[in-house]
Amino acid sequence: MDMMDQYVVFRNNKRVSLREEDMTAEKLSQIFQVSTHSLYVTDDANVAVFPGASGVFSTLDLTPRAHYEVHGEEENTSSASSTTAQRFTFMRTPATSQSAATQRAASAPPPRATASKTFQRSIFLAEVVGGKLSPSRMVVVRFLECEATLQGIIGKVQDAIGSHDPIVLTDAQGNAILDSEGTTGSQYWKQNARKILAVQEEGFQELQGTKRRRLSAMGTFWRPISLCADHLWVSTHSLYVTDDANVAVFPGASGVFSTLDLTPRAHYEVHGEEENTSSASSTTAQRFTFMRTPATSQSAATQRAASAPPPRATASKTFQSDQR
After folding, report:
1. What is the CATH number of domain 118-218?
2. Distance between CA 195 and CA 159 in Å, rounded?
3. Is the pLDDT confidence value at 307 over 90?
4. Are 222 and 186 spatial neighbours (Cβ–Cβ below 8 Å)?
5. In what helix (H) or strand (E) does residue 203 lie, and over which residues does it extend?
6. How confident is the model over 240-250, as pLDDT tens digits?
7. Buried residues in 103-131 as b, exposed as e (16+ CB within 10 A)
């Protein structure tokens, strides 16, 4: 999946990454339970962006890999109060050859000096217990914008615990966080909704060895499962899944998830409204493993593939994968 075609959208503590074709009012309403008629987003400069008449956000108004906060009235509520109390700058999109991003930059107020601004985030100190990471302590580190890098945060944690033994920072699933463009800057590190753990390098190597042995032992017993929406207990009109990178994937018009959007043996979390309930609670307890079904003459996988939408051109796209 091309990272350049993704946008990070969030509301309160919920955050997902969406592809260009999924940036619609309908799907944002489905994820964040916000009424479509009042939905809009704001960018990092607090500029409001509204969907078009068709409910689709124009890519001329969006910046790939940028973060957008979702606003609007809660769905199924009678109050007309807006969920945001902050002021924002509204800009009309003129029909000129100049890009909208350039015009927003020209009309935005001068950036505030941030040299002395400090940020903070919580880091959980974990140990490997029974082949899993078990957090036992927590430190809160403060850092400047210039220190918002992987090595900068590692140094802060080492200073806090009084030990400079090699440590590895991981996500909640024990995947090592790598130094990259996406992990540089306070925008990534100041978000406490993203759980980050610190583990001794020796313990991390032990954890990786345990994972490899577990996957090797389970490899012959994994069985392919259907990804059709009607096999789950979640309402089909609100169902979608997220991968380990928190990227949302939606089923096609036929209700079948395209294998072009899925990675074999990857883990996906199911979201949506519970069937036969009026509450909009998200079902996040079920995680499943996807595995391609071997082609057979009458296999169900072949029949589903025949009804799936035609694959998108991917010759020029680049993809990413979390390191296990």
Report:
1. 3.10.20.90
2. 20
3. no
4. no
5. helix 201-218
6. 888 888 888 89
7. bbeeeeeeeeeeeeeebebebbbbebeee
Distances (CA, A) of 35 to 19, 96, 278: 21, 31, 15
Rounded Cα–Cα distance for residues 307 and 280 (Å): 30
Tokens of 38: 């009042």
Q: Which residues pair with 301 in a beta bridge?
A: none
Tokens of 200: 């001794």
Closest of 271, 268, 267 to residue 284, by C-alpha: 271
Q: Name 197's Cβ contacts closer than 8 Å, sequence gap at least 6.
A: 123, 124, 125, 126, 133, 135, 169, 170, 171, 172, 174
- Start-to-end C-alpha separation, the chain: 18
Question: Over 60: is that where the pLDDT of 196 sits?
Answer: yes
Backbone dihedral angles phi then psi of residue 213, each to the nearest 5 degrees: -65, -40
User: Where in the chain do CATH 3.10.20.90 domains reside?
Assistant: 1-76, 118-218
CATH code assigned to 1-76: 3.10.20.90
* Phi and psi at residue 4, to the nearest 5°: -70, -15
